[in-house]
Structure formats: structure tokens, C-alpha cells
Amino acid sequence: MRILVTGGAGFIGSAVIRHVINNTNDSVINLDKLTYAGNLESLSEVSNSERYSFEHADICDRIALERIFSKYKPEAVMHLAAESHVDRSIDGPADFIETNIVGTYTLLEATRQYWSELDSKQKLTFRFHHISTDEVYGDLEGTTDLFTETSSYEPSSPYSASKASSDHLVRAWLRTYGLPTIITNCSNNYGPYHFPEKLIPLVILNALDGKAIPIYGKGNQVRDWLYVEDHARALYEVVTKGDIGETYNVGGHNEKQNIEVVETICQLLNELVPQKTDYQDQIVFVKDRPGHDQRYAIDASKIERELGWKPEETFETGLRKTVEWYLKNKTWCEHVQDGSYQRERLGA
Question: Which end of the chain has fewer CB within 10 Å, C or N?
Fold first, then answer.
């Protein structure tokens, strides 16, 4: 199968591509604009594969999309390209509206045009898989409630509102035009190759650099943590085996308060890179961000029941792997932050 992956140089997208190239016989076309969070170095282990191709393009560029569809003739689309950082969406929501809403619309229309010209057999097997977030559901007030595939949408931030909008567009293109779409909504991902502004890599790198480790509010916000390689496996199961029109929630079964996550990282660093003082001494509590959701938690029973997927990593095993990866890959962190690897590859 030929799979077009948008945002394939990003955190989750690169994990999906590594999984497909390393574990299947399928081929991948990576379409990525290479914004600050996209890094081709995350794909260095698979970039020489004859089953991997890269296209430097923007999902808002209809002409580029039509050229790519015509050139590669994909049999499925996995749409991961998105602006995804909540703090950035609060400071500058326009990029999120443009990429997550306008970009998804443009991609849907280019896909619909391409799909409409396929023969009847190809139409039946084609899939448009839209990868979204549990943040579209808002937050949970109780301690036992879970998000299901039928939970109402109550987004809190410009980021989650833009992703909710894109979800609605995808469903509308199925209902109105018959485009064979599937949606997944995932919980917080973590693991190797995560951009350093996100919580877990930020804590690791700040701790190692002797900097303050900032925590919003009291750090009692609860998130369900999903190891990114588990997520990549789930997404491949959905695009190859999921039913058209269905939504699948993907969670890690690992609810943790943010303060617990940070303290666990500090304990791992105390063990792996001991220093004179406890890394927890670097924790500082800062003013909470506007509209901060209190709790997310995913009911992932549907994807386990219908597709046989469940996470392999516990939070403890996945977090240890993550910390160890960052300790061994400081050069990657430097490159993704200064863009040097990107410029070299693109001849800039």
C-alpha cells in the first residue's frame, strides 16, 4: 500500500513513518512543510529506504497537493499535519486556523478530486485517516469519567477548537461527498523525537541544564499518557483495518498529574545522571495558563475490542525509555532547535 502521510517530519508523524518502513512492506510519501516542529533528522534511520519519499509542501497549497497525488497515486492518506502547541495557539491563533482548518479543508478537497477519479475497486479500498486529539472534548470534572467516541465536543483553547473544526470537516466530507474517512482522537503522546517545548522533553532538558522546571498552577492537571510508538501501531491498525465513518479513541491507560510526571522524571535523572542536589529542587510553580483543562482521560476499549490494539508500554517503562533516549541524543535536540540539520538537507 502507498500511504501519503502529512506532517511526517513531526513527532507522531515520524513515528508512524518509522513504524511503516520498519515493520511493513508498505511505502510512504512524507508531505511536510517543515515548520519549527518538523525535523527530517527524526527520519534518518528510514530516509534511504526505497519505500520512502519526501515532498516539501504545505497542505494549504492546492496545486502542490494535486501534483503529489498525481505523481504518487496514494492508496491512503494519514493526515497528521497540524499546529499543536496550546501555548502557541493562545499567543497566536491565526496559524492554527490556517493550518488546522484551512489546511484540512484544502487537503480534503484535493483528496476528494483524486478519489473521484479512481476506478470503483480503488475507491472501495481508499482511506482518508484524520488524526486528532482528545482535547476536542474539553475536560472532565470527575475522577472516574472517560472520553468515549460519542463524547460531546467542548474545546477550551484555540488549538483544540481548530482541531474540533477539522474533525467536523472530515465527517462532513464523508456524509456529503462519500469520501471514505476515519478519525482517531488520542491522548497526550510522549517518547523519543518530541520537540523540546513540550512538557516531558522540556523538563528533561531544563533539569540537565540546571534551569528552572516550570509547572503550571499546582501541577494537579491530569493527563492520560500514550507512548508514541504505541500510538503509531494503533494508527496503522486503523488505516488498514478500521471501518469507514468510525471514530477510534486511542489512550495509554496512564493517568498522571503533571506534578507526578515531573517528579518521576527528576527521580529517573537522579538515578541516571546524579548531581549534588535533587533535580526536584529546580521545580518552580508558575501562573496557570488561560482556560487550562483539568483532566483528560480516554476510554480506549473500542479500538482494543474491534481492532485488537492496546498499548505495550506502561508509563514507567515508556518514560524510562524516553529519558534514556534524550540522554543519548542531545545532538538531535540541538539540531531541532537551531534548524541546522534541516538547512543542510534542504540546501538552505
Answer: C
- Binning pLDDT at 50, 70 and 90, where does residue 336 land? confident
Phi, psi (degrees; rounded to nearest 5) at 18: -60, -40
How many CA within 13 A on the CB side of residue 65?
22
Q: Cβ of 93: how many Cβ atoms within 10 Å?
A: 16
Kindly state the average pLDDT of the residues 326-347.
77
Q: Give the count of domains, the chain.
A: 1
Do residues 161 and 168 make contact, with C-beta atoms less than 8 angstroms apart?
Answer: no
Could you give the CA distance from residue 5 to residue 53 in angstroms, rounded to a whole number?
Answer: 10
Q: Return the ∠ at Cα 202 (arms to 234 and 79), rounded to 5°.
A: 30
Do residues 288 and 305 make contact, with C-beta atoms less than 8 angstroms apart?
A: no
How large is the average pLDDT for residues 71-99? 95
Residue 187 lies in domain: 2-346
The set of catalytic residues is 134-135, 159
Long-range CB contact pairs, 148-151, < 8 A, 24+: 148/249, 148/299, 148/302, 149/185, 149/246, 149/247, 149/248, 149/249, 149/302
Give residue-wise pLDDT tens across range 177-201: 999 999 999 999 999 999 888 899 9
Residues sharing a CB contact under 8 Å with residue 1, sequence separation 6 or more, in sequence order: 26, 27, 75, 76, 240
